[in-house]
Write a structure and sequence with these properties.
By secondary structure, the chain is of the alpha/beta class. It has helices at residues 2-9, 21-24, 84-98, 118-127, 181-190, 210-217, 238-250, 252-258, 337-351, 364-377, 392-404, 416-425, 433-445, 449-457; strands at 31-32, 39-40, 42-43, 50-51, 63-65, 73-78, 102-107, 134-136, 140-143, 149-154, 170-173, 197-203, 223-228, 278-280, 288-292, 312-319, 325-333, 356-360, 382-386, 408-411. The protein has 14 helices and 20 strands.
């Protein structure tokens, strides 16, 4: 054992920042200053603060050593580049060296051992010069000196076979954002050895993911929870830093999620890939513009806080002389019909005569009356009316194909994040008003100007 410790001493395990220290430290009581000299304090298990032997809180300036209170859960989450997996691996190796432990490394789905963290652990062991002290087997790693065992399992297809690990000292759950509520319900109580720990690492996905809800949003005193960012990792590769900087500039919303570790509100819809949109400062001279409208006529009712009405949305789409499409801006409002009508007229006046406004037409006789009314109310402006045909996804696909091909620009503005978030979540998001308006505007951009004029004269 001493030989192994000496070997480790010559190859110090790198810890990028102090946030990872709890993985490596042993539990120890705090030390506080008293008139009689330094004495051991205690932890208040409710507040996790430091108290003296009589339970009185100790002021920070009297704490000589804050000590370390071990918790059952160690949760590290965030975006890319925080070295979460590497530090869990290093800590697992250190624990297996210090004494005999049983470590279970698991993830939601592990079809083969290649899906596990075995290869990462092997790389760490070799880089520390400790390979002679470990046996790297087909499906587990053993420390020759201490007898520690590191095993690997998938949860979804083996959840009922994990009873043999109820005496595990550590359970490391990798890519924990993918772990389902059912898997947690069975895994958590399985790890039942007194003093056992559950290490949880993941890149943040949805705000509604069971792992995020249970171990971050509702963290309690038995959890050590750390958000880790790539900026805190001094060992991060220069190329990854460049990737982060590029995404931050071109797509701030995507950057906040992927690199900043902010959870998404809704699952990606799969129709649009909004990160392919290029943000620009201005449109090309000579751009042809159409504002497509999606109408709603309900205002927010403070007496009904659980009712979230649709928006009236009017994205401004353009076709540039280069052939690229562009989103110029988005106008949105929630209000009663008379408020919406006034909003449309104000927008038309501000847009000027060069912009065609495409408005959805209700089916049947009511739609014919609507066309006549709007044509009179908005006299002097370029108008187009047509009923909606087909489902929302079908109508959105022509515009989505241009977005996904990287053929769409977007003028920088405060509305960008709301717009790209809705596109990314469509059709699974809470709203689709901006998508519907964009689909309508894009459809009219493909109609030759001469044909547009014919439709307008026919009103």
């Amino acid at each position: 054992m001493s030989e192994l410790c000496n070997a480790l001493g010559a190859n110090t395990i790198p810890i990028p920042n102090d946030k990872f220290l709890p993985l490596f430290e042993d539990g120890r009581l705090p030390v506080i200053a008293t008139p009689d000299g330094p004495v051991a304090g205690e932890f208040d298990l409710m507040t996790r603060g430091i108290v003296d032997q009589e339970g009185v809180p100790v002021p920070p300036h009297l704490v000589i050593d804050p000590g370390h209170l071990r918790t059952r859960y160690y949760v590290y989450y965030g975006g890319r580049g925080g070295a979460k997996s590497h530090q869990f691996a290093a800590a697992a190796i250190l624990r297996s060296i210090k004494g005999k432990v049983k470590i279970l490394c698991c993830r939601e789905i592990q079809s083969t051992i290649a899906d596990s963290v075995l290869s990462l652990l092997e790389i760490k062991i070799r880089s520390l010069g400790l390979i002679e002290y470990f046996d790297i087997l087909v499906n587990e790693i053993r420390c020759k000196v201490t007898g520690s065992v590191i095993a690997f399992r998938g949860l979804r297809h083996n959840i009922n076979e994990l009873k043999s690990f109820e005496d595990a000292d550590i359970c490391w759950v990798e890519e924990a954002a993918d772990v389902t509520e059912n898997s947690w319900d069975k895994l958590d109580p399985t790890i039942r050895k007194p003093g056992a720990e559950i290490w949880i690492g993941f890149n943040t996905e949805l705000i509604t993911d069971p792992t995020y809800v249970n171990y971050v949003a509702n963290a309690d005193e038995d959890m050590t929870v750390m958000k880790v960012g790539y900026e805190e990792n001094p060992l991060l590769d220069v190329m990854m830093l460049k990737q982060a900087a590029k995404m931050k500039k071109l797509n701030p919303e995507k950057y906040r999620h992927i690199w900043g570790g902010e959870p998404k509100l809704t699952r990606d819809g799969g129709v649009f890939t909004p990160e392919m949109i290029t943000i620009v400062e201005v449109a090309e001279a000579g751009t042809q513009w159409v504002r497509g409208w999606d109408l709603a006529g309900t205002e927010v009712d403070l007496k009904k806080p659980n009712v979230d009405p649709d928006w009236t949305a009017g994205p401004l789409l353009g076709r540039q002389p280069s052939g690229r499409f562009i989103i110029g801006d988005v106008k949105r409002i929630r209000g009663m019909p008379h408020t919406v009508e006034k909003f449309l007229k104000t927008t038309m006046v501000n847009d000027g005569p060069a912009v065609l406004h495409s408005i959805p037409q209700d089916p049947g006789q009511a739609g014919k009356f609507q066309v006549k009314y709007f044509a009179g109310a908005f006299a002097g402006h370029r108008l187009h009316f047509s009923p909606e045909t087909g489902d929302k996804v079908t109508r959105a696909e022509p515009f989505a194909s241009q977005v996904n091909a990287g053929n769409v620009d977007m003028i920088r503005g405060a509305w960008n994040d709301s717009y790209t978030l809705e596109l990314g979540a469509f059709p699974n998001g809470d709203y689709d008003d901006q998508v519907d308006g964009s689909s309508r505007g894009f459809e009219q951009l493909l109609v030759p100007r001469a044909a547009q004029q014919v439709k307008i004269r026919g009103l």
